[in-house]
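Section 3.1: Structural characterization of target chains.
Under the original work plan, the team committed to producing a structural model for every single-chain target entering the pipeline before any wet-lab resources were allocated. The record below documents one such target. The sequence was received from the expression subgroup and is listed exactly as submitted; it comprises 239 residues.
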Amino acid sequence: MAERVQKLMSKAGLGSRRESEAIIAAGRVTVNGRIVRLGDKADQFEDDIRVDGKRLDFGERIYIKLYKPRGIISSTEDELNSGRTTVRDLVDLPGFLYPVGRLDKQSEGLMLLTNDGQLTHRLTHPRYQHSKVYKVDVEGYISKDTIALWRRGLLLDGRLTAPATVDVISRGDASTQLRITLREGRKRQIRRVAASLGHPVTRLLRLQIGPIKLGALEVGEWCSLSAREIIDLRRAVYG
C-alpha cells in the first residue's frame, strides 16, 4: 500500500515527519531513482526508497525503557562536545535510538528510547497529550489553595499551563511529596511552576509515560519493553 514518503522515512527511524519533510525538500530522497517531492507516495514493499543513496531499512523496531540517573543528559549525543554522559551511553545496543522526550539533567526516572521515529513523534508532539506521571519532592508545606492553583494552571512564558493532576503523597513543615500527572511538557515545567509558587523542587522522579511504567528498574538500568508493553504503547499512540 502506498504511503507518503515522509511517513515511510519516519517508520524507518530517520526522524519525525517534520524532519523527514526537510530531508525531502532538500532533494535528498529518491524513489526508484527519481527525486521525490513533498506529498509523493511510495510502497515500502515494492519501491526502492533511498536517502542520500542509501536504501531505507524497515528492520526490527527497538523499544527500550531506562532509569535515567541524575546528572545524565537526556540527549543521545553531547551537543557541547564536553564529554558529558548521555542516556545513549547507558544502553549497550548498536544503531541510532531516539529519546522519547527529555528529562533535565538533575531529574531522574523513566525514559524511553526507540528507533521508531513515527512513534517518537506521536509520543512527544503536544497535540497528542500523552500523560506523564512524576513523584516530586518540594520544599515546605504546600497549602490546599496552592495545590488548587497548580491544578488549574499558571502563567508560564505568557500562557497558562494545562490543568494538571496534583496529589499529596506526604506533607510536613519542611517538605511535601507530590504525585503529578501532566499532559503537556514545556521545558522544566514542574520545576518552574513549583519555584513560582515558592516551593522549589528538591527531587523529581518520572514514574510513567503513557502506559509504560518505570517498574522495578534500578538507577541506570534498562531493558527492552515486553511484548505486552509494546502492544499497550502502540495502542495508546495509534488507538
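The domain at 131-209 is CATH 3.30.70.1560 (Alpha-Beta Plaits).
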